[in-house]
Amino acid sequence: MPGFVVMMLVLMCAAIQGCVMPTINNPFPEDPLTGGSEAATSRLLDIPLPSGMERYLSHGYQTYGAHGGHEGLETLRGRVDPAVAARNIHASLTAQGWRLRLSLRKGDRSVHIYERDNAMALLNFRRQTVMTILEIWVGGRLPDGAMPDFAEGRDGRPTPDGGSALTPVPGTVEQWGGSSAPPAGSSSGGLLERNL
After folding, report:
1. H or E element that contains 14
2. Domain span holding position 92
3. What pLDDT digit, counting tens, does each position of 157-181 carry?
4. I want to staple 50 with a disulfide (CB 3.0 to 4.6 A). Which of 41, 85, 94, 120 is the partner?
5. Which of these, 47, 55, 49, lies nearest to 73 by C-alpha position?
6. Number of domain units in the chain
7. pTM to 2 decimals?
């Protein structure tokens, strides 16, 4: 009986040895923040970033805003202390004429809002176990009394005109139900709507 157990262990070790692969793959290939590229300066704010930060293009976007500058979201992650990073970025922004308008901190998160001319910038720091995530939002300052626009385009981003890509252009006619082209003088039986 003990010989049988030893024989089985030897056979199992041989079988396992034959199944071992020479390389080990990443056990977390679906990590949402993988594939970052080294980032020395912010593309939206044109300021130096703390060393060790990586930019994740798949989690941001950039366009030109109505205020004449860059607009969008920049997502960065790195092994930096959020307080030190916030101080360094604050020094760079104030040197470019940005004014701090709001600074809030709760636990492992902090938010800083800056203003310059007709532009606003929001910096959102989130500390993780080892890394810090920095989101930089930049956009044009809204006029007093403006309403928030929650419309999104087909890709989830705001459309250039501020409306929704799914919203018809004013003056168009939409029709649901019935025939698409009713004969003259007859009713299609569907719903006809004209956008103003």
Report:
1. helix 2-19
2. 37-140
3. 455 554 444 454 555 554 444 454 5
4. 85
5. 55
6. 1
7. 0.60
